[in-house]
């Protein structure tokens, strides 16, 4: 364990003594977190310090998890991790995330270097320093970019590293130095007593450069949950909106899950990339969730879940949430049944429904009153749900669709399954989540008249 990044830098410098006092050595600190460590290393070795700029590509909706990284260089090609393969993040989504992050990478490079070019590393020994190696994606991206600049020797150095990732990175550098290597590596922050975010201003100070206040951006914090009053108490939702949101998607999970599950977060993040605002909701109060954990009974009260979902739609309209005039409902398992029932109560504002592994049989007779075009997504290996969705399809409005994701189970946890489901949902909502209020109301009247 290290007290802080300064302490880690001292320990790392002791392992790099062979490079002390050499005219050909240049230390590059990975911005932002690697720069405080690199400053201590460069001072201890008596060699110059500069900065290497790379950028993690966060999984949409789960940005703290890296699906890859980009770094400065001529190609800017993303370096992708196994996470992208496991979730099933398509290439065009990776490219979209990379394009967004390139703008931030370019801003940092201009700021840290005062508009000057990156240092010339041809024929030099470069020691690339970061504050730790977990997935190794950003370090690997920086290594590949530096290799293209033809240094004589390239050394990667970290205070602590995941042993497996270190072995993989070692094949791409001339030397890899790590004070600690462990097999059961969890997170870089676990190795520090104090591990604060590093700001642009701190990076510039460590580099001995004067900050331009207009260009400095402080690290941003995560947004908190929103409480919504409902019958029986209050429920919580996470609401996020891109600029110019084209509509609002409310996501309701199934029993035993939560709005914070990686599946809900990824689907919501993917929808935001497509321009939709999202609200991930827990339809049970905290007390009801505790009771459900013990009995698994609360999750099957579809009537109550549907009332809560209607309340969320009304709350969104009252609060003027971005895109609240065009609401789509995305539900999983029992949450899908609630979404279908809720859609019958708000036909004027619910433009489309997506059911993922939905227990649509629990919606009962309400299926015949649904007016919004509905996509039923079912895993090919989830035979019971596939049967009940097939039985439900004829009751849904014309244009609704049953789509099977090959090899997926009920919760879409198989490699590639979640990404495939999310892409189907995006295509469906882009096609149907439009402002067709007059048409929907006319269709609702027709269906109501036909059932009398």
From TrEMBL:
Keyword vocabulary terms for this entry: Glycosyltransferase, Transferase
Domain Phosphoribosyltransferase: 10-167
An annotated Gene Ontology molecular function: glycosyltransferase activity
Pfam families tied to this protein: Pribosyltran
Keyword Transferase: yes
InterPro entries hit by this protein: AB_hydrolase_fold (IPR029058), PRTase-like (IPR029057), PRTase_dom (IPR000836)
Presence of keyword Zinc: no
Domain of life: Bacteria
Protein name, UniProt field: Phosphoribosyltransferase
Source species of the chain: Gemmatirosa kalamazoonensis
């Amino acid at each position: 364990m290290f007290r802080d990044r300064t302490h880690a830098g001292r320990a790392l410098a002791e392992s790099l003594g062979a490079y002390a006092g050499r005219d050909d050595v240049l230390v590059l600190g990975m911005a932002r977190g690697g720069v405080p460590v690199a400053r201590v290393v460069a001072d201890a070795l008596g060699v110059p310090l500069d900065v290497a700029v790379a950028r993690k590509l966060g999984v949409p909706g789960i940005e703290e998890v890296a699906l890859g990284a980009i770094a400065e260089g001529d190609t800017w090609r993303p370096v992708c991790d196994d996470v992208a393969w496991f979730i099933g993040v398509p290439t065009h989504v990776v490219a979209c995330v990379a394009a967004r992050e390139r703008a931030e990478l370019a801003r940092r490079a201009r700021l840290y270097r005062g508009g000057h070019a990156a240092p010339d590393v041809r024929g030099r020994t470069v020691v690339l320093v970061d504050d730790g190696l977990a997935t190794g994606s950003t370090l690997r991206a920086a290594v590949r970019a530096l290799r293209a600049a033809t240094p004589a020797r390239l050394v990667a150095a970290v205070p602590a590293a995941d042993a497996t990732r270190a072995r993989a990175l070692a094949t791409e550098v001339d030397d890899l130095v790590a004070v600690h290597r462990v097999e059961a590596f969890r997170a870089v922050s676990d190795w520090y007593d104090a591990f604060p975010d590093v700001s642009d201003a701190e990076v510039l100070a460590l580099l001995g450069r004067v900050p331009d206040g207009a260009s400095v951006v402080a690290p941003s914090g995560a947004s908190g949950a929103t409480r919504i009053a409902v019958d029986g108490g209050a429920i919580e939702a996470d609401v996020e909106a891109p600029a110019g949101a084209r509509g609002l998607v409310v996501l309701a999970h199934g029993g035993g899950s939560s709005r914070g599950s990686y599946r809900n977060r990824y689907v919501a993040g993917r929808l935001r990339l497509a321009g939709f605002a999202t609200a991930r909701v827990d339809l049970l109060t905290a007390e009801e969730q505790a009771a459900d954990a013990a009995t698994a009974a609360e999750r099957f009260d579809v009537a109550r879940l549907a009332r809560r979902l209607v309340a969320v739609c009304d709350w969104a309209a009252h609060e003027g949430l971005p895109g609240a005039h065009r609401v789509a409902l995305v539900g999983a398992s029992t949450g899908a049944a609630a979404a279908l029932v809720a859609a019958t109560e708000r036909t004027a504002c619910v433009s489309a429904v997506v059911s993922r592994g939905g227990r649509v049989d629990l919606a009962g007779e309400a299926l015949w009153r649904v007016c919004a075009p509905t996509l039923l997504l079912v895993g090919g290996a989830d035979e019971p749900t596939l049967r009940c969705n097939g039985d439900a399809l004829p009751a849904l409005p014309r244009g609704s669709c049953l789509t099977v994701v090959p090899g997926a189970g009920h919760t879409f946890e198989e490699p590639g399954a979640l990404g495939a489901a999310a892409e189907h949902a995006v295509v469906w909502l882009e096609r149907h989540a439009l402002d067709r209020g007059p048409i929907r109301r006319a269709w609702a009247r027709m269906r109501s008249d036909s059932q009398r």
